[in-house]
Amino acid sequence: MRFSSAILSIALLATSAFGAPTNQKRCRAKASSSVLVSTSTAILAASSTDVHTTFSASISTEAASTSEVHTTAAASTSQVVSTATASTSKVASTEAASTLKIATTAAASTSKAATTAAASTKASTHTSAPAATSTSSSSSSGIKRGLSYNDVSLTKGFSSSKVSWAYNWFSQPGGTLASGVNYFPMLWGADSGHTSTWMADAKAAIAKGSTHLLFLNEPDLSSQSNVDPTTAAQLWMTYMQPFKGQATLVGPAITNGGAPLGTAWLDQFMDACNKLGCQVDAVAGHIYGSASDPDYYKTYITSLGTRYGKPVLMTEIGVSDTSTSAADQAALIDELVPFLDGLDSVSHYAWFMAAANLLVDADGSLNAVGAAYENAA
């Protein structure tokens, strides 16, 4: 999800089919909880800053379902925990670990588009290489690792020898990425602020070498792009299907929540798409969990490839507990990066995110977590 200025949302989190870790759930801003990153509540049209909010999905168990209401409030984060009653498996369904991701509106998107155009950044991101049409499960460079960002200047600490792609929950890059880093534009939501420029932006991105088009950020959450599966399939036919054969078309980025969120939502989307004749080349997912439970990440990510039989892009990976130490996050990265690189079904992945106090410092230099992500092998 790509966001500008400040609107914090309220998300209803259902419980996940995998069970939940006893001390873990993905956090979103909420009063009286720990804050990783403060947010702006400025009027959207007055800001061109891109920020991204993602909400965590719900956590559930197979034997007993526990639903929890996850309410967000400005500039704080909260934690919801659901305990599995008949299973020892743990599932962490979480919101983005940062309050940098704020809900986008059409006005903000229009403002950002104008700013980006004025700065002539659309033409500066990539060389005009021919568009790739392959839907294979590995990037053309062989490097799966990527970046999510709002401020392109905060990606400068990462080397293109370690990361091969990047996205910013928007359809224009907002600046110049390092040479060799492929930009993946995204149609974040169904509002006119995103759809009005999408066709032209996607066409321009493909002409400059973009190999993948991303579609809908967390449509299974009412606080994010909030699109029902049937409508999403119709949007696909209008805004994605015309690019068939020109780029890898990636499905909606779902949360790791339980029904009706997560894979339950995506199942309905795929059914509706099949009836309309959509070509969905790859699937996308987000996952937040406990740094102490890497097996949960491995099981969930593997299940996406098995379930859909398509390449998987994990466009957000992170920890849900914002108080997790840098050392514990680095240890999780050291465990997961080799796993992701070796898992054939995963074509691309991005740790959340290239922003101050997450992967980098305020000046864009890598912090301990960012250095772990850059150097993990």
TrEMBL record:
Asl1-like glycosyl hydrolase catalytic domain segment(s): 146-373
Region of interest (Disordered), ranges: 120-143
InterPro entries: ASL1 (IPR053183), Asl1_glyco_hydro_catalytic (IPR024655), GH (IPR017853)
Residues annotated as signal peptide: 1-19
Biased composition (Low complexity): 120-141
Keywords attached to this entry: Hydrolase, Signal
GO cellular component: fungal-type cell wall
Any Pfam family matching the protein: Glyco_hydro_cc
A GO molecular-function descriptor: hydrolase activity
One GO biological process term: fungal-type cell wall polysaccharide metabolic process
PANTHER family: ALKALI-SENSITIVE LINKAGE PROTEIN 1, ASL1-LIKE GLYCOSYL HYDROLASE CATALYTIC DOMAIN-CONTAINING PROTEIN
Designated name of the protein: Glycosyl hydrolase catalytic core-domain-containing protein
Organism of provenance: Dichomitus squalens
